[in-house]
Amino acid sequence: MSNEAATATTPAETAPPPEPIPHGLGASLQPADAQAKTEGTFPYAADLWAEGLLWAAVLRSPHPHARIVSIDTSHARDMPGVRAVVTHEDVPGSPVHGRGRADRPVFASEVVRHHGEPIAAVAADHPDTARMAAAAVIVEYEVLDPVTDPEQAFEAEALHPDGNLIRHIPLHHGDPAAAGDIVVEGQYRIGRADPAPIGAEAGLAVPRPDGGVELYLASTDPHTDRDTAAAVYGLAPDQVKIVVTGVPGATADREDQGFQLPLGLLALKTGCPVKLTATREESFLGHVHRHPTLLRYRHHADAEGRLVKVEAQILLDGGAYADTSSEALAAAVSFACGPYVVPNAFIEGWAVRTNNPPSGHVRGEGAMQVCAAYEAQMDKLAKKLALDPAELRLRNVLATGDVLPTGQTVTCPAPVAELLQAVQEFPLPPLPKDTPEDEWLLPGGPEGAGEPGAVRRGVGYGLGMVHMLGAEGADEVSTATVKVQDGIATVLCAAVETGQGFTTLARQIVQETLGVDEVHVAPVDTDQPPAGAGCRGRHTWVSGGAVERAAKMVRTQLLQPLAHKFGMSTELLQITDGKITSYDGVLSTTVTEELHGKELWATAQCRPHPTEPLDGAGQGDAFVGMAFCAIRAVVDVDIELGSVRVVELAVAQDVGRVLNPAQLAARIEAGVTQGVGIALTENLRTPRGLIRHPDLTGYALPTALDAPDIRIVKLVEERDVVAPFGAKAASAVPVVTSPAAIASAVRAATGRPVNRLPIRPQAAVVTGQ
Predict the structure, then answer these.
(1) pLDDT given at position 441
(2) What's the CA gap between 85 and 505, in Å, rounded?
(3) What is the maximal distance between C-alpha atoms in the chain?
(4) CA distance 257 to 97
(5) Residue 576, number of CB atoms within 10 A of its CB
(6) Which of 256, 578, 619, 719 is the most core-located residue (most Cβ within 10 A)?
(7) Dist. CA 219–CA 523, nearest whole Å
(8) Please, where are the H alpha helices in 588-652?
(9) For residue 366, what is the DSSP state?
(10) Helices in 92-126 by DSSP H: which ranges?
């Protein structure tokens, strides 16, 4: 016998038993699509194909503001290979659409209101033919002066039949005559940021024999998109079906409805499947962006640093159309004072139309802009009072039971002081050695032009808050069905997996509740009941709650026969590790045995408690729940070049309950890194309303080389009793908080005010050193 063979049969060398597979809530269960995405086999929307496929292209306006004199499509129609050309004249139903308000034309007809607005769409047998045909559509414009300054929108001629004012919210809370011993003022500007989805925006429309159409899209809100499409096509909602396919991840409502809608029109007109894959330039021109914002603040505090009054004016640039500007403004005004106790607050907020690109929902909308401003104000107060910035914040932090400036009592856990103390006490990273022999990263990179002697280190703090779910009376509801057959469970829910981990959570919920190992989540389409949009943590709360309720109903169906047989109630039975046992040990069987040959199913809904709109004074219980975060930023700044390197971000977050540790950590780290881009690089420049450099060369996203060390120093698990599982939204609040913390650290390093995001190099240069 060879040594090799002897070794293989030696008992001491027997392979250890396999590690148990993560199971149920609290485990780091791997996403079901992780392997496919890693190997490059995951089918994204851009990979779609159909027999007899035509290709689409969209003609977009080169002007931000113009009157359309004429549109001549004859040259495009006559090109070989062109199958259809559609304009506003070919829209059979509603000529307008919009997420928050239907005010945006499918195709511009009389007036162009922003750069990139769709004018016409073409279907052809080859993508190059489609693009050439779109370029062959001749549009005669009378160019008009664009209104690009939101402050000028108040006095300018109406850019839209609905006027230039989208919404005005005056918030009055407390005594207007209140004043503090110390007063600081500031003006702040937040630039235009883009969701910049890495995956291409793409879709496929397939006509149906009944005269309807199916749209295959990476939609994040399929039922809303279906209803919008049906209205535009002049069809009943049941004649339009949306199949969600290949969502590569979303940090906003990433799909432009103005991109989706022409697909169905072309498919209905040609009777053929039609596909469109947007170029990067088309993505920048088509979808919505984060609201550029102008903020003016005045903070009053007493001699001990406690806030007495906050006054603010907030102006959101909504761009050409309303979209979700009203909701963003409500968040900005409501959270304008931050997670601090403010007895008197007087906030004026406006969202206006301009000829800039449309703004809309981008993660943390409204809350992110005001966080950068109120945290800058807290730094100014600390400096004027000669207090440590963290100490000043601790003297004012919000807690459960306190009242927001909207008059709403904070009933959810609000451990803001605990979060701040956690990041404050976390050890600081070591200082770099100021010698040329030791290699360390200078701002601008290891091969940067800076000198170590010009580098200053700064430490800053940010406290942020966001609301979860919809607000101001939004009807949040989701429906889910759980089926179990032959020991295999299937979840049907129209909650779209956008990278937030819903499909993994749904599997964990069913595993936990039913003790079933194998759980599948069915693909999403609009034949299923609505689940709503995939944003603000709503699928963890509302859709996860619906799955849990349905699973518990199936659990009751499973246990009732056993409980009846042994003369006990189902509450006296428990399911653990795939086994069903009774409290007294009399009953012990396996879930697999009891499910053999059975088919069980149940459907349930989850609807959180209702909210109400803000009234004429900005008062009302407008939010279901809130989440909080504290971040300490450490930066190195080259005060000669103005370059900034984020060394470390220490994060403490209020998460309610950890449902999937690995997934939660990834979401927080991703949100923090997104905030680094907002703070330092991401700025979509639009001089006179024209998008300059609509590509990923001109729009600088942070890369892995820009990502700092991210230390999650504390996760506070204080469960929110009104939320399923007690969990809170995790992704938006670090995005909101990290830009403010980074700006605070740059202020600490340079002594400069830093009143604009992203931070320009000249704002970090210190002269006379």
Answers:
(1) 64
(2) 44
(3) 97
(4) 8
(5) 11
(6) 256
(7) 12
(8) 591-595
(9) T
(10) none
Burial class (CB in 10 A: 0-12, 13-18, 19+), 585: exposed
Q: Which residue has the tokens 């996760």?
A: 715
What is the CB-side half-sphere exposure of residue 77 using CA atoms within 13 A?
Answer: 10
**pLDDT bracket for residue 502 (50, 70, 90):** confident
Supply the pTM of this predicted model: 0.93
Q: Is 408 helix (H, G, I), strand (E, B) or coil?
A: coil
Check pLDDT > 70 for residue 686.
yes
Instruction: Indicate the burial class of 12 (C-beta count within 10 angstroms; 0-12, 13-18, 19 or more).
Output: exposed
Distance CA(353)–CA(331), nearest Å, equals 18
pLDDT in tens, 177-216: 999 999 999 999 999 999 888 777 899 999 999 999 999 9
The amino acid sitting at 476 is E
Which residues, other chains included, contact 594 with Cβ-Cβ below 8 Å and sequence gap of 6+?
A: 558, 562, 580
What whole-number distance in Å separates Cα of residue 443 and Cα of residue 643?
5
The answer for residues whose C-beta is within 8 angstroms of residue 723's C-beta and 6 or more apart is: 541, 545, 608, 625, 656
Two tokens, residue 251: 């940090």
* Dist. CA 726–CA 656, nearest whole Å: 5
653 — phi, psi (to 5°)?
A: -140, 145
Does position 8 have pLDDT exceeding 70, yes or no?
Answer: no
| DSSP letters spanning 440-487 | -PPTT-TT-S--GGGEEEEEEEEEEEEEEEEETT----EEEEEEEETT
Do you know the residue count of the chain? Answer: 769
Name which of 318, 325, 298 is nearest 309 in CA terms: 298
Whose tokens are 């929307």? That residue is 45
